[in-house]
Design brief:
The complex is a heterodimer of chains A (about 375) and B (about 325). Chain A is about 75% helix and about 5% strand. Chain A is mainly alpha-helical and about 375 residues long. A two-stranded antiparallel ribbon of chain A has the order 1-2. A two-stranded antiparallel sheet of chain A has the order 3-4. Chain A is globular and about 50 Å long. The C terminus of chain A is likely disordered. Chain B is built from twelve helices and two strands. A two-stranded antiparallel ribbon of chain B has the order 1-2. In chain B, a hairpin with a 4-residue loop joins strand 1 and strand 2. Chain B starts with 5 loop residues before the first helix and ends in a 22-residue tail after the last helix. The chains are: A mainly alpha (about 375), B mainly alpha (about 325).
Chain lengths: ~375, ~325
């Protein structure tokens, strides 16, 4: 108990420190803009049909999702297995409005994101009464139910199991897709940074640590959860729309798939749930495993294993190791290593991250 | 509305309920004792189905005899797993256990893909498709379905006997009610948790072995069934086995009637259980027993507040 209290105090102190702008803000915002500029210039130097452009596009899309999931799943501690609903609704709203209503692509994208945000409020409000894994399990129910509805009763609209094909008109080249996704990832990172330091973020940290205490202090936890989920849904909805426009084909079984939700959870938790940089690290690992190692193969006792075949297990293994040994994810691991070198400071940061994660430790 | 169908549909639903109950007992037991939701449940069922298949293919063991081997095997696996891995995270935030068991599911699933490939398998024996007719009622019932239903009922009776008559069972119930008090009266809570986890996994495996005889399966098998199990235990009030049996019956009836009597599309059948899961969590956090508890005649004991998903800290 005393350890927990001490951890909580140190986390609270960290939160107070974070509130003030200063060198950290300069570092985070400046660093992000600089990194984005370098990536943009790099993108421009690549030939228009380069595979790297496509990989980069995917990486940025996943990173955006991971950062967006972290807003509600990390900062607020509301583990959602239902973010695929936002992805799917964003993708379908964008595609349908653009194809059937002839809406301008940008407006269609925004409408898709807005649709996802509205949907998040619809299921978010009733579900926010639930705590811990009850919330998580209810979101699985919501996600699977949404997929079924998109697949069958809305078959006329979504194309059912055979999917929905878009005309090639609004696709744009690989370079423009790359740039769009890069801009989105930068905007999402800055949003995430802003949320972390705003009153919204502090409220989310507070409710993550102890919902009752936060309520007592006058934090409207339901409102905060709803706002963060809607923000998260809006961003994920945007990625859905961008995905639809890049691939020109969407299918309820793809965009509403359980695996879409899982990917966001995996990326955030592996990278470092509730941290600023963690979701980015997680997304990089995720995409590298999925995209770059996909073609690798191992020959063992005359049998050849495609690397693709062990992806899922590899993510599972990473997740298990992270949860058992380093709850603060890769970020925690790096900080621990850095702390070894610096002797001081690093361990403190790790303790803070871990305290955030280990909130609500059952009353053993 | 098609009322002419109501009898066969209801009989079908009752048989299905046996299956739903069997697959939910393990989940309920593990939740009760450890306050952990076993998200690897689907993986365990799938693994047990493949084990049954392997026992038949390699050793010629009839699938209906397989539970005799599968259950002890998974009991030992479950205990070892609890001892080595799950114990490390007792007392952590609920989401930690959820993610850990989820990662286990991913690993099991991937291992199954590597070992058995993604092809859909099914176990076909002369008796698996045989059925009998009751002419007077115009009913056709598959022997396998009936057998699986009876297995579910027998399991419930044995479990109820075990939990009320044996020391181990009583200790498990005591731990379920209040972990700290159980410690105070001298129950080795760690050992009880290990045994209960083993039994829970063995029950999941029993369900998997039974499923392998009536449903086709592949490494992705069990996701929808796992969600249905969640719906069942939430309906049943989370910790009572009789509650789970009743929850299974209610869910099976709702599903079968929605399709067979009220004419819902078959493709939407699973929607019933998904909606039930969400709605019951929100509206009836203590499940059906809390509904009974409100009626003075049936009131037995007050619902335990610690099991409520909304109230207090989700311990």
């Amino acid at each position: 108990m005393t350890v927990k209290e001490r951890e909580r105090q140190s986390t609270a102190a960290a939160a107070t420190r974070r509130a003030g702008p200063g060198r950290e803000a300069l570092f985070a915002v400046g660093g992000a803009v600089l990194a984005a500029a370098i990536l943009a210039i790099f993108g421009l130097t690549l030939p228009a049909n380069s595979y790297l452009l496509f990989s980069g596009f995917l990486l940025f899309l996943f990173t955006t999702q991971s950062l967006a999931w972290n807003l509600v799943g990390g900062y607020g501690g509301q583990t959602s297995f239902g973010h695929a609903t936002f992805y799917g609704i964003g993708a379908y709203t964008t595609a349908l409005l653009q194809e059937n209503a002839g809406l301008h692509p940008v407006l269609a994208l925004l409408a898709g994101a807005l649709g996802a945000a509205v949907f998040s409020v619809i299921w978010g409000y009733p579900l926010f009464r639930l705590r811990g894994f009850y919330f998580a399990i209810a979101t699985i129910g919501i996600a699977e139910a949404t997929r079924l509805v998109a697949l069958s009763p809305l078959r006329e609209l979504t194309g059912g199991a055979s999917g929905f094909r878009m005309s090639t008109a609004g696709a744009g080249g690989r370079t423009s897709q790359y740039m769009t996704a890069l801009a989105l990832v930068l905007a999402t990172f800055l949003t995430s940074y802003w949320v972390r330091n705003s009153k919204l973020g502090l409220g989310l940290f507070a409710l993550n640590m102890d919902p009752e205490a936060a309520e007592t202090l006058g934090v409207d936890t339901t409102r905060l959860k709803a706002i963060s989920l809607a923000l998260s849904a809006f961003i994920v909805g945007l990625t859905g729309g961008i995905y639809a426009r890049a691939f020109l084909y969407i299918n309820p079984n793809d965009v509403f798939a359980f695996s879409v939700s899982i990917a966001m959870v995996l990326m955030s938790v592996i990278g470092g749930v509730g941290t600023l940089i963690g979701p980015i690290l997680g997304a990089v690992i995720y995409v590298v495993i999925q995209d770059q190692l996909g073609a690798a193969q191992i020959t063992f006792r005359g049998q050849t294993f495609q690397f693709r075949d062990v992806q899922l297990g590899l993510y599972g293994l990473l997740l298990a190791l992270i949860i058992l040994f380093e709850p603060a994810g890769l970020v925690g691991l790096f900080q621990r290593v850095a702390g070894r070198f610096r002797r001081r400071g690093g361990t403190q940061a790790v303790a803070e991250q871990q305290a955030l994660l280990r909130n609500e430790t059952g009353d053993e | 509305m098609d009322l002419g169908n109501i009898l066969p549909v209801t009989v079908g639903a009752i048989l299905l309920a046996g299956l739903y109950a069997t697959m939910s007992y393990g989940l309920g037991l593990i939740y009760g004792v450890m306050r952990i939701v076993n998200l690897s449940h689907a993986g365990i069922m799938m693994l047990a189905a493949y084990t049954t298949l392997m026992l038949y293919r390699s050793f010629g063991i009839e699938p209906y005899l397989a539970p005799v081997i599968v259950m002890p095997l998974f009991f030992v696996i479950g205990m070892g797993f609890q001892r080595l891995i799950v114990r490390r995270i007792t007392g952590a935030a609920p989401i930690v256990s959820l993610l850990l068991l989820f990662s286990v599911w991913l690993i099991i699933q991937n291992a199954a893909y590597l070992i058995w490939s993604g092809n859909t398998q099914s176990i076909l024996r002369p008796y698996t498709t045989r059925s009998f007719r009751i002419e007077a009622l115009d009913l056709t019932i598959g022997w396998m379905r009936l057998g699986v239903f009876l297995a579910g009922v027998v399991t419930l009776i044995i479990l109820q006997f075990f939990l009320t008559r044996t020391y181990l069972g009583k200790a498990i119930r005591a731990t379920t009610q209040d972990r700290d008090s159980a410690k105070l009266v001298g129950i080795d809570v760690d050992r009880i948790s290990m045994v209960a986890f083993g039994i829970g996994i063995a029950l999941s495996a029993l369900a998997g072995a039974l499923f392998s005889m009536i449903l086709p399966f592949n490494p992705d098998f069990g996701r929808v069934l796992m969600l249905k199990s969640f719906a069942v235990i939430v309906l049943g009030g989370l910790t009572s086995f009789v509650g789970i049996a009743v929850g299974a019956l209610v869910l099976a009836l709702a599903e079968e009637w929605a399709v067979g009597v009220f004419g819902m599309q078959t493709a939407l059948k699973d929607l019933v259980s998904f909606s039930a899961l969400v709605l019951v969590l929100i509206l009836l956090p203590n499940g059906l027993p809390s509904l009974l508890g409100r009626m003075p005649v049936w009131r037995t004991k007050p619902a335990r507040p610690t099991t409520a998903p909304t109230g207090g800290k989700a311990a």
